[in-house]
């Protein structure tokens, strides 16, 4: 069987001949993926902005535990604002044609978001555990200053965790 070698190309490089020889895709695939991604982007942006605005707009919600929730919302917004629109463009163009740099930035931001989401959810779980099981020490452990430091640490650890992928 004769191969054209296009399987060896980087995904960010256009295939020779403008994608000739690629397997034909079902006609419903592009519109279905695009609609799903548009819906995801809208819900992601609106929902996370509502979370952030709710916490900052309501003094009762400004507490240590919600600092982690806001950080998680920011991590989710990072993906909805840059990589998702680029993926959507690729769906409409039937392949990635935005170049190597955008591919790398998009991959970095997706990785950053996933890792920081995991770390933020872990931070939320630890915060809730301390609130329930160590309620007498909670106010000292999770003062506003300490909680801000924990969120900052989460983002530093996220950057450290993603560095090997650069």
UniProtKB/TrEMBL annotation:
Residue span(s) of domain G-protein coupled receptors family 1 profile: 47-166
Annotated region (Disordered), positions in chain: 1-27
Q: How is it placed in the membrane, per its record?
A: Multi-pass membrane protein
Question: What GO cellular component term, any one, is given?
Answer: plasma membrane
**Single GO term (MF):** melatonin receptor activity
Record-linked PROSITE patterns = G_PROTEIN_RECEP_F1_1, G_PROTEIN_RECEP_F1_2
- Predominant localisation class: membrane
User: What UniProt keywords are attached to this protein's entry?
Assistant: Cell membrane, G-protein coupled receptor, Membrane, Receptor, Transducer, Transmembrane, Transmembrane helix
Q: Name one Pfam family in it.
A: 7tm_1
Keyword Transmembrane included in the entry's annotation: yes
Does the keyword Magnesium feature in the UniProt annotation?
no
Origin: domain of life:
Eukaryota
Q: Which InterPro entries match?
A: GPCR_Rhodpsn (IPR000276), GPCR_Rhodpsn_7TM (IPR017452), Mel_1A/1B_rcpt (IPR002278)
- Compartments (UniProt record): Cell membrane
- Annotated membrane-spanning segments are 37-56, 68-85, 105-126, 147-164
Q: Belongs to which family? A: Belongs to the G-protein coupled receptor 1 family.
Protein name, entry field: Melatonin receptor type 1A
| Taxonomy of the source species | Eukaryota, Metazoa, Chordata, Craniata, Vertebrata
């Amino acid at each position: 069987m004769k191969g054209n070698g296009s399987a060896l190309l980087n995904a960010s490089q256009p295939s020779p001949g403008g994608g000739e020889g690629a397997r034909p895709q079902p006609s419903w695939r592009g519109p279905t993926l695009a609609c799903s991604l548009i819906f995801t982007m809208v819900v992601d942006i609106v929902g996370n902005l509502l979370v952030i605005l709710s916490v900052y707009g309501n003094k009762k919600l400004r507490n240590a535990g919600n600092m982690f929730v806001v950080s998680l919302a920011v991590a989710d917004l990072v993906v909805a604002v840059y990589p998702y629109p680029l993926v959507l463009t690729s769906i409409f163009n039937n392949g990635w044609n935005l170049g190597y740099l955008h591919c790398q930035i998009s991959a970095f931001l997706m990785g950053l978001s996933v890792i920081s989401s995991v770390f933020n959810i872990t931070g939320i779980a630890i915060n809730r555990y301390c609130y329930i099981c160590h309620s007498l020490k909670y106010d000292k452990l999770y003062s506003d200053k300490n909680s801000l430091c924990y969120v900052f640490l989460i983002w530093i650890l996220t950057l450290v965790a993603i560095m090997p992928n650069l």
